[in-house]
Amino acid sequence: MTIQTENDTLSLTFAALADPTRRAMLARLAQGPATVKELAEPFKISMPAISKHLKVLEHAGLIERGREAQWRPAQLQAAPLKDVSQWLESYRENWEENFDRLDEYLRKIQKEKE
Amino acid sequence: MMANTTADREIVVTRKFDAPRETVFAAFTEREHVEKWWVPNSTTHEWDAKPGGLWRYSMPNPDGAVYPFKVKFIEIAKPTRLVYDYGTDAENAPGPVRTNVTFEEEENGKTRVTLQLVFATVADREQAMQYGGAAGAQQALKALADYLATL
């Protein structure tokens, strides 16, 4: 099992996803753009706290914010999530490689037995 | 939310090998075989292949740092099934990845190996980014799985 060194973008994505409130916000945004007020609705936390979460998501490139000063609707950006799913896929590739080595090894010991 | 299935947070890899099942099972569970193919360039520090026993090893990364890993054997049902938890050996390390390996006999003495990696659902966010490299990512992977389950 080899490990893959993730780049900074992935680290940011992972850090952003590590919080349940932010994941819930992303889940909401997966249904379409929303204003800060709409995003804050389901949570019993302050607006500044919501803003902070939004900043983390924005910094990670997971959302994009509109320019209308007061509402600044947020929109989900899919690219970083695709990177993460590619990283997930690396686990599979890793085992495909392990299986290649196992295949080669089994051939060798089978041959020695004959 | 998917409550009764792990389909949303698992990876399945399968391969058919041209060797009898007993041999393939041994390749996964006996140290002298395991060290020949499983983790290249690794150093084994502890090996105890029985339920609850540990295989501790470390391996260097391309950046030169050495990372410790830990395999905890959960079930060794010769020659059909192997279950282990794969994680790290560091303090504050995130939770392990449960791995289920099944060995099925196929025609002409061949064996199908199916490996299922199951990532836990609940992210321990306090620990999430404390352990670097793959382990931190692994923890975050749980968070991702958790998130994807909500979509």
Automatic annotation (TrEMBL), chain A:
SMART domains on file: HTH_ARSR (SM00418)
Domain of life where this protein originates: Bacteria
InterPro entries: ArsR-like_HTH (IPR011991), HTH_ArsR_DNA-bd_dom (IPR001845), WH-like_DNA-bd_sf (IPR036388), WH_DNA-bd_sf (IPR036390)
Residues of the HTH arsR-type domain: 3-96
Gene Ontology MF terms: DNA-binding transcription factor activity
Classification via PANTHER family: SLL0088 PROTEIN (PTHR38600:SF2), TRANSCRIPTIONAL REGULATORY PROTEIN (PTHR38600)
Protein name: Transcriptional regulator
Gene: arsR
